[in-house]
Write a structure and sequence with these properties.
The complex is a heterodimer of chains A (115) and B (165).
Chain A (H helix, E strand, L loop, with lengths): L3 H29 L3 H30 L3 H34 L7 H5 L1
Helix pairs in contact in A: 1-2, 2-3
Chain B lengths: L2 H17 L4 H18 L11 H33 L8 E6 L5 H13 L3 E6 L4 E6 L2 H8 L2 H9 L8
Antiparallel strand pairs in B: 1-3, 2-3
Helix pairs in contact in B: 1-2, 3-6, 4-6
The chains are: A mainly alpha (115), B mainly alpha (165).
């Protein structure tokens, strides 16, 4: 119990750090991957996990600082944000790819990459 | 239970969480606006007329599915992070057509959503004969999908039996 507060701080730091790492790889993927669909692969999902982990870290931090009725309400709202990101992000990714497919963007294949 | 009552209860509990004020004035405002919304569009959340126990059972099974999905998302995200950071970038993008055996609309939606959420695969389209057009970024993620484990799990949530030969 001596360093309970410290241990929780470390956990929050690790979770937020991992979330930021996934944001970073999503951005690197967006810049490096060759075509439209591959770029979407990187951002559409890396962002989801990054945002979810970062917000989870914030939820734990708020509850740790001051465990009362009002902070529970705030953390519930944050959990709802996580839920809506979880729903909206893949839907948007799918909508963008479908728009690309419908307007005739041809996906890159392995054979094109080898050339 | 009538579905409009359940819709009203869901909306009102959301109101309570979002407003965070519990005096008579704000609660009354909440009751009035939730009633109006329930009257206008109360048949959007549930398809069937009555709210039954099977809805609750589906919900519980869906909540049990989320931790597994989250684990898969993390695994696949690590894979994509590896692809993005690798100096040679060993990606092999290709388009896969996957014949699914799910029948209900809701299970198709959840399945397509799960595919899009696990990185490396995006559902591009669902045709009328139930073929999922999926863009994969490497062979490994496609193999994970082709085992059919995810489809079986989604089918189990909504009470559909899927036998893969």
């Amino acid at each position: 119990m001596i360093n309970f507060d410290f241990a929780l701080n470390i956990i929050v730091g690790v979770i937020v750090g991992i979330g930021l790492f996934f944001f970073f790889t999503a951005t690197v993927g967006l810049l490096r991957f060759p075509d439209f669909y591959c770029k979407l692969q990187a951002t559409g999902k890396g962002d989801t996990l990054g945002a979810i982990l970062t917000l989870l870290g914030i939820v734990i931090y708020i509850l740790k600082e001051d465990f009362s009725f009002s902070t529970i309400l705030v953390s519930l709202k944050l959990l709802f944000i996580i839920f809506f990101i979880f729903l909206a992000n893949p839907t948007a990714t799918h909508a963008i790819t479908k728009a690309g497919l419908d307007s005739g963007v041809i996906p890159l294949r392995k054979e094109d990459l080898e050339r | 239970m009538n579905k409009k009552v359940v819709t009203f209860l869901i909306l009102f509990s959301l109101w309570c969480i979002f407003s965070g004020m519990f005096d008579v004035f704000h609660l009354a405002l909440g009751v009035i606006s939730c009633l109006i919304i329930t009257l206008i569009s109360g048949d959007l959340i549930f398809k069937s007329e009555k709210f039954t126990k099977s809805h609750i059972r589906d919900g519980i099974r869906f909540i049990k599915y989320i931790p597994w999905l989250f684990y898969q998302i993390i695994l696949a995200n690590i894979h994509v992070a590896y692809l993005a950071l690798h100096p040679k970038m060993p990606i092999q993008p290709f388009v896969l057509e996957y014949k699914a055996k799910l029948k209900k609309d809701i299970s198709k939606v959840v399945f397509a959503h799960s595919i899009t959420l696990t990185p490396g695969t995006i559902t591009m389209d669902i045709t009328k004969d139930n073929i999922f057009v999926i863009h994969c970024i490497s062979q490994k993620v496609a193999d994970d999908l082709l085992t059919g484990e995810m489809e079986k799990k989604v089918g189990r949530i909504f009470g559909e039996n899927i036998e893969r030969s």
